[in-house]
Amino acid sequence: MSIDLSQFKQTFIEESDEGLDVLESGLLALDSGTADDEVIHAVFRAAHSIKGGAGTFGLNEIASFTHVMETLLDEMRDGRRAISKEGVNLLLNSVDVLRELMDAARDDVAPEMSRANEVQAQLDVLLANNDGQVQSADVSDEEQTGSGVSNSGSEQKGWIVKFRPHEHMLRTGNDTVRMFKELSSLGDMENSADLTTLPEFTLMDPELSYLSWTITLKNNEEQGDIDKATIEEIFEWVEDDCDLTIEPLFEGGLVETEIEPSEPVENVIPVAEAATISDNVKPIEEPPVENTSTERVSPKKKKSSEGGSIRVGTNKVDTLINMVGELVITQSMLSQMGDEFSMDKLEGLREGLAQLERNTRELQESVMRIRMLPISFSFQRFPRLVHDLSQKMDKKIELKMTGEQTELDKTVMEKIGDPLVHLVRNSLDHGIESPEIRLAAGKSEMGTINLNAYHQGGFIIIEIVDDGAGLPKDKLLKKAIEKGLVSPNENLPDEKIYDLIFHPGFSTADQVSDISGRGVGMDVVRKNIKELGGNVDVTTNPGKGTKFTIRLPLTLAILDGQLIRVGSETYIIPLVSIIESLEIQTENINSIAGTTEVYKMRDEYIPLVRLYEVFDVKPETTRLQDCLLVVVEGDGGKAGIVVDDLLSQQQVVIKSLETNYRRLDGISGATILGDGTVALILDMSGLLAMAKEIEPVRSYANA
Amino acid sequence: MSNIQDIVGDLDALTDENADQYLTFIIAGEEYAIDILRVQEIKGWDKVTTLPRTPEYLQGVINLRGTIVPIVDLRKRFNMPTIVYGPTTVVIVLRVVGEEHDRIMGIIVDGVSDVHNLKHNSIKAAPEMNGSIDARFVSGLTTINDKMVVIMDIDTLLNSSDLDLEDNVA
User: Fold this and answer.
1) CATH architecture of A143-277
2) Distant-in-sequence, close-in-space partners of B75: CB < 8 Å, separation ≥ 6
3) Whole-prediction pTM
4) In this complex, is the C-beta atom of B104 within 8 Å of any C-beta atom belonging to chain A?
5) pLDDT digits over A395-432, tens only?
6) Nearest to A660 among B50, B52, B67 (CB)
7) Mind telling me how many Å the CA of A654 is from chain B's nearest CA?
8) Which residue, A17, A190, A487, A632, shows the most beta carbons closer than 10 Å to its own?
9) Tell me, what's the ipTM?
10) Residue B69: its chain A contacts at CB < 8 A?
11) Helical spans, DSSP H, in A32-84
12) Can you identify the CATH homologous superfamily of domain B4-168?
């Protein structure tokens, strides 16, 4: 082929990823027995296009592996083979193997074939086992005999290919000329066309294919014997759109019966066309080659940046273009006004600026929307996970998902994946009981896990609910006392006890399984979610089930903030963590042991955090009655932050400090204010943790 | 200052592939040089936003066209007496090559002085030093106009691990 294909490889791999997802979800549907014919057709088509594409891009391992899968799927599709659990599981394994191969192809490295070979062998065994029951000839079998002949027949001179395209073949974008050209490159080709089906000129539809061909391909001395697979590969894309037979050609076995007088003419035209086409193509060929060589330098970088591409709906892009258009109009209006400004136009200027502000905000919102993806991207791996694990553990579990269309920011989505998997695994392993225990407890044998997502304010809430045994309160408490986290005579409220599961190194599993229970999980889950500015809570009902609730900000790029001032520094407190702000009444200040200050707010006491102490900056005043108190909530506890002044509230764009520096305790990022200066965004949980560590040195505290 | 011979020498060095261009700057009367290809821009001193609980020499961060750039005061870094920032005080914004990724950082110096072409063979190895400037930060010594110039290894100097290590002190 004369077009450089590597430029399309990335697209192929992305498409294949989608294909693999279709394969997987289809197979899972097959497994649960809810599938209709359409599902297996979809699965087959997905496998088929992966195979075709892989062949085109020279990814032979993928092509040959998918071919075996396809054979199996084909039998299932035609009803020649019953859809067995064994078969589906094997196919699911194959999907995993394909993913690995695909990843290798993406990174341009040689694939790890050991697992692929293993699974392929299993597939072969399965196919061979069923040979007896299958009525019609097995496809792979047929191929084996085919290649057998080509090996054994010493007198074989080549192949006879009978090719009869279906009428609509040309409409699928396949070009017979291209195929003939490729065939002719394999050896000496003679081609004869059957014109008998050609209608009268006036009746002819130029978009339909009326001809059929008999092609004799003789082995060429220079190029050696032609492999049947090579020929099949050429017809790979059209195999469903034509009748194709490939038979070995033996000495003297030339087929001459179908040759008609007009045949040479038919033959000459395509070849001539082909020549001109290839001439046209050549100049274009050069630049893509250079392109790929530069691209090849970067694949490693690509992976580490974990970025990749996102697909954006055209409507979202259209909206953006509209808004940019409006922005440009407003801008030109303003600049025209600036050119010939006089004081009487002040009102117009104000209006223009207001319009500019509106345009900018709308534009910002639309740009943010581009990064929003439905959470189904994250949820889609769970059916597979639940399927695999429930089999492994001999449990019967049904997974229900709601709110898959709830959108959230792509970066949040990428980071929430692992914690979610962990929580679902936990529910599977510890939550849902084995069928016997469930029956004994009077529940249905089938356990249920509900994954639920919805929006609430600027947050997305994800719930993982199981109807299992619930958390063992006594066991948790016992373990906590054992570990010295809780003193034996302490009276903890229930939610505090359940919260213990988020403590590092805490596992109540009697046996450490390979699924979960090593006790390294839940604290990491909480930590990861905290890092995203979210929170995770657990509620449980003994005997009825457990519910994990994750609260996450919709986006990491923008937040609503309250600007505060301490001395000459400006900081930003995220609005979501502020409960209220108030003036300090000195009579409400109490101190414990002379060091820890608490403030009585209605009926609770909250610790005071003097921000200037934590951050070691020079405050305007240390007299509490001149300060303001911002009551915040972080990490499960409230605190009052002592600040000099409250400034405005505004939306801020979060910039990372890590890009050029590193993470700092108590600070989640920075932003740029209207005057161009940098302001730091406070991380409440981190800040409160820091405040606890600080040894209060209050030399001028009560001044 | 430069006489005709210097100019000819510079021209020679320009065309010489064994030479690199260096930007020199001054701290406390001493001249230092850095690879000019690392310099992103030179800007006047402006107010920075301080970062809490960081080493003292990390002066703070500035907004460089939307990017947050940390600024290191070299006088404080080398424990030299500090001065009040004045009109000649400049920030040199540099690209620092790190292990994982490159960073943009700024250094505060008393003033920039010149650009010189230095031949590789004119750069001498630094002797073992025992003072506030660690030998690790010096990649070599050279002589320009009969004055010694210290060629600084900014990657080691502004390496994040170095900044990280010392933040326990703060």
Assistant:
1) 2-Layer Sandwich (3.30)
2) B27, B28, B81, B82, B83, B108, B110
3) 0.51
4) yes
5) 888 888 888 888 888 888 888 888 888 888 888 887 88
6) B67
7) 11
8) A632
9) 0.81
10) 660
11) 37-56, 60-77
12) CheA-289, Domain 4 (2.40.50.180)
